[in-house]
């Protein structure tokens, strides 16, 4: 399988100048997407794979053909020749396009990971993105992988690094509560309905987005990750609870999903699984507000990915305490985020996804098992308090998630060490547990958190058994 010259020409356009870099996001391609990675320091670090990747420009050519291929092939299916050619075309030009050679290694690794995941997906059950394999479903091909990848990198360059944007400016999340950028005509909670987004009347936003002003960044993120999810073998449990939560939202009440967190792509996992149920449930995934840490609004390629999500930006306790000099400002921002969330909950009909653990689940390297990270009681207490203060009925549901293999995180957290992003073709799973009764006084609040965590853990085990992943059960 050979990729067409039109697609290859875009991959080869990654060359000589900032203007040429902007070809990543060329409007000729309707398929647009985004991704996250770390170019320098991060609160999480190391590579879970330990694979050798070139670290300077002189090694870029070796990374393209030999090193990347040999480092990723030992435990995964062989790379289809067409996907290998497409991967090499993208990686070969990265070194001459990036503003810093320090970015070559992590991006080369990421490109290789994505092409390997989609190559495996293409060889599985006909390689259709649609789990029902309808006639209109787009097939997973090397051309498709190239389109998504070059567009992804283009968005990261433009909005995360400011390369090719007006005045070289990065996209800035100016508010603690961000509303997804889905184009001037934004899909509303009423399925199929459209509403004019007044933000697009702002000349500053239109100037920043340029030719991307009509892009639905939410759909772009889903389109990027959907091919790497084996939706035929994925699992969604607790449909009755999900329907109940949707009915409560439609009645103007609030719903908070208390979830474990396994992958940077968890919001896309929610959306892609919810949309397999119905249009109504799919829109719930789009309308959801995701509680996010600082990383998703500051990491270069996370920025366009986050532009397509409704976000509530809160600094974790670990991040607040990391630098005493910035602690007052971060604490003030968190208070602003809580007030903004309270305002939304007072309006009613607000769906919120939050991981009370404050981070991703980590593999036990001694056993290979993956336990869910403990819920933080203070976090749960805060959301209960906001629900009570809103004076709008607020419901709490445990949401168990299995997505670890989609983007496996490093086994250890090392401050100041960049994180290589990994991508796998894998099934994913979600289980919605029974509603946790929002009752009990201050002296019993720990029981609520324990109940929610226990229900989440039990749903997690049911998912792992149903998906044939018993080896991960703690």
Automatic annotation (TrEMBL):
Keyword Signal: yes
Keywords: Signal
PANTHER family per UniProt: GLYCEROL-3-PHOSPHATE ACYLTRANSFERASE, CHLOROPLASTIC (PTHR35695:SF1)
Gene3D superfamilies: Glycerol-3-phosphate (1)-acyltransferase
Annotated segments matching region Disordered: 32-82
UniProt feature, compositional bias: Low complexity: 32-75
Protein name, as recorded: Phospholipid/glycerol acyltransferase domain-containing protein
Record's signal peptide: 1-23
One of the Pfam families matching this protein, by short name: Acyltransferase
Domain Phospholipid/glycerol acyltransferase positions: 255-404
Superkingdom, taxonomy of origin: Eukaryota
